[in-house]
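Internal ticket #5521
Category: modeling
Description: The requester needs a full-assembly model to guide mutagenesis choices. All entity lines are attached below as received. Residue total reported by intake: 623.
Assigned to: D.W.
Attached entities:
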Amino acid sequence: MEEFFHQLTNGLAIGGIYALIALGYTMVYGVLKLINFAHGDLFTIGAYLGLTLLTSLSLNQYLGAFLGVLLLAVMVMGLVGIIGIILDRAAYRPLRQSPRLSAVVSALGASIFFQNAVMLIYGARYKFYPQGILPRIALNILGVDIPLMRILILLTSVVMMVALYLFIQKTKVGTAIRAAAIDQGAARLMGINVDRVIMIVFLIGPALGGVAGLMVGLYYGQINFTMGWVYGLKAFTAAILGGIGNIPGAMVGGLLLGVIEALGAAYISIAWKDAIAFCVLIGILIVRPTGLLGERVAEKV
Amino acid sequence: MMQNLPKRYIVYGILTAVLLCAPFFLNRYWVDVLNNVGLYAILGLSLNLIVGHTGLFNLGHAAFYAVGAYTAAILNTMYHIPILWLLPVCGITAGLFAGLVARPIIHLRGDYLCIVTIGVGEIVRIALINNVFDITGGANGIFGISRPELFGMKIRKPDEFFYLIWFFVAATIFLFHRLEQSRFGRALNYLREDEVAAEGSGINTAHYKLATFMLGAAWAGMAGNIYAAKMTIISPESFNFWESVVMFTLIILGGSGSIPGVLLGAFLLIGLPELFRGFANARMMIFGAAMVAMMIFRTQGILPPLPRKFPIDKIPESEGTP
């Protein structure tokens, strides 16, 4: 039972990270109907930028651990968000009117570009986050020791997702994003600046992905230039699992995938951990292609 | 159109002649590079059937390549069957495997299919690493695959492989060219252009999609056999996602749906980077940027397919139903 609880919290923490990355996929897919293959690499960039800022500014020494990390997260989000906007400008905007395939290839190209750019700048070896940035305490919940880090990750991702949900549902810009997701042409006729909406989507999605990268760095301590690919693919699976284009769906899908994976790794085999996620992907697409919370059936598949 | 044809044939003839003489004036290293180009040309042509002609995004082609290579390696090392005899076996295994995995997912649209094929590719790779059924040799793969033998002659050196591989390339080009012209090939093109209209004019789209998928995969399986014979060692890492991406990109770069385009793509993507070995690190980054630029400035690829005698949008009504 203790083992189960341990794996469950571990799964929820990883799931929170998947969910944060999945939000970027889901938002971009919702508005542009494009799988942004480079999104996983934006996550990697977030992890590396976080490391650079952490070691060069040492904010945590001046501001204390929590405030320092918070400020760090804000900086990473801003920087990765800007990279996201540049990515859209350079690789996707010129292809708005082109066939679907071109945009997919462009996304793959951008992914290769980012991955190798990170490798050139930081080197191909694993990089390590300094230890003990956040205090390594464990909280005793129901008689089981749960590392504080897990709870923080889960909490951060849930807070961000709720904030994003409220932003999309309650604000004027959020309404514009939803309108553009349903029908870009009609949204344009209603006076919505669709280009600006897409820009905002490419600011928020990568920002959340970037902060997820920072969290992975803080949680696992080691990062690599290729890691964005696996995380990205799993986050995409999470987005599909929850129903792509659906923000609560990304959250539910992410958490669920994290838990399935952690339990699968513990009770089936750790060697098959990655394969479990892809089996979930294939299974969900065969059985319920719209995902758990998806609605718009006819359009999708 | 017709006046252009002889000129084209002269160009192709000269290129073929130059290629055939290549082993006589190139050193081993470059002959080996050409062998790789040939191998990727076969893979590209096989994937081109699926992506270029039928419009199905398959980003997991390396999985079928792997199935072929492993079939060859396992049967060769365990039962000592000469590796080239296994060519049809590898093709059939990879084709059947593709049929098995594609059957439930083939109806998925565009990018959904793309993501599922990535998933299939990864599952296959992980299965190979985990030594599934205890025959794949795990992360180290399989070694000790015997050299192929043809008419009592052992094929060992790169120049000998050169002729084997490029003969296979030529055979593939011939067969796929004929296929393109056939009723089957034309049906695939209708399907790519407009699935609903194709279905409406009596093409069983699900059937055609699955058939192409299996045929393309079978061809990749045979390429896998040749790869195994050439390397004598295979490991799961040779069949990872980026391998699929390279196959996919060389089609898009060269001109999707066009045989000369795929060949050019293979030369550009596999051969050309060898010239820039010195910039090995920056190479891939430039390559990624080039992919983006290519899509923006020349979406259709460098050598897009030539217009047909009956362009698809100008088919007389009586010809509309294949």
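Resolution: model delivered.
Comment from assignee: Chain B has a mean pLDDT of 82.
Ticket closed.
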